[in-house]
Amino acid sequence: MNRLSPAFAESRLVGSIAAVMLAAAASGTHAAPLETLTIAVNTGFTTMDPWDATDNLSRTAARSFYESLYTFDKNLKPTPQLAESVDISPDGRIYTFKLRQGVKFHDGTILDAEAVKLSFELGASQDLKRTRRNFFNFVEKIEAADQYTVRFTLKSPMTAFLERLSNGTAAIACPSLLARAKTKQALAFEACGTGPYKLVRFNPAEELLVERNPDYRVPGLPKFKALRWVPVVENSTRAAMLQTGE
Asked: How far apart are CA 169 and CA 52, in angstroms?
């Protein structure tokens, strides 16, 4: 049996969910805002913290409310998300990112270089023991060059750096959340980012509910008022839910 790589498996999951959402959006014949989309999945969630999540489902769902400097496009090519551009030094060790200006976190504060620096420093912190804390262990230092410029100096050239930034691990969280959440357990149940949705309610075995972020930076998005993720283990039960409109 052929096995899918984690990155490809994740892209398939993201693509499947996106296809469902696009089909639902296309089926509407009126201009009224779309309401809640319920997504039944075959397993429970582990955490809302992408820096600690080992399963593709949790990391995919976290993309509802977290964004990174880069993300993958539909062809799995790294493309800027919270970054506007990047300049790479000739020796391949220094990556200087210009951030998009005017991007708001869910708590109303503005995204800046210090927030990016803080997210990465706490993500890699050995004290918090987040599962993916060593994912960027090739980074030597991070500097906020000015309000909207952040500079990464690598220990040695890393050709896959942008790919690492794009896979969802390097979520940029609200500084206010990082200031009060002192353990990885606290970060598992709270979320505050710049994404299209805000976290409303989370019970790992029962439900993840997110609602539209009215301040999202992309005009016209998100299309749905809310997303409701429901873990349902049995395939037959999920099929029945689909048939009954649940």
From this structure: 8
Phi-psi region of 92 (alpha: psi -120 to 50; beta: other; left: phi over 0): left
Torsions phi, psi of 125, nearest 5?
Answer: -60, 130
Distance (Å, whole) CA 193 – CA 81? 13
Q: pLDDT digits over 102-154, tens only?
A: 999 999 999 999 999 999 999 988 888 899 989 999 999 999 999 999 999 99
The tokens for 163 are 């790919």
What DSSP assignment string belongs to 33-55?
PEEEEEEEESS----S-TTT--S
Helix (H) or strand (E) holding 123, with range, is helix 113-123
Cα 209 to Cα 163: distance, rounded to the nearest angstrom: 29
Give tens-digit pLDDT for 197-226. 999 999 988 899 999 999 999 999 999 999
Establish how many alpha carbons lie within 13 A of residue 137's alpha carbon, considering only the half-sphere containing its beta carbon.
Answer: 6
Strands 34-41 and 224-231: parallel
Closest by alpha carbon to 96, among 171, 156, 149, 40? 149
> How many other β-carbons are positioned within 10 Å of the β-carbon of residue 136?
20
- Please name which of 120, 103, 114 lies closest in space to residue 51, comparing C-alpha atoms: 120
Sort strands 83-88 and 94-99 into parallel, antiparallel or unpaired. antiparallel
With a cut of 80, say whether residue 232 has pLDDT above it: yes
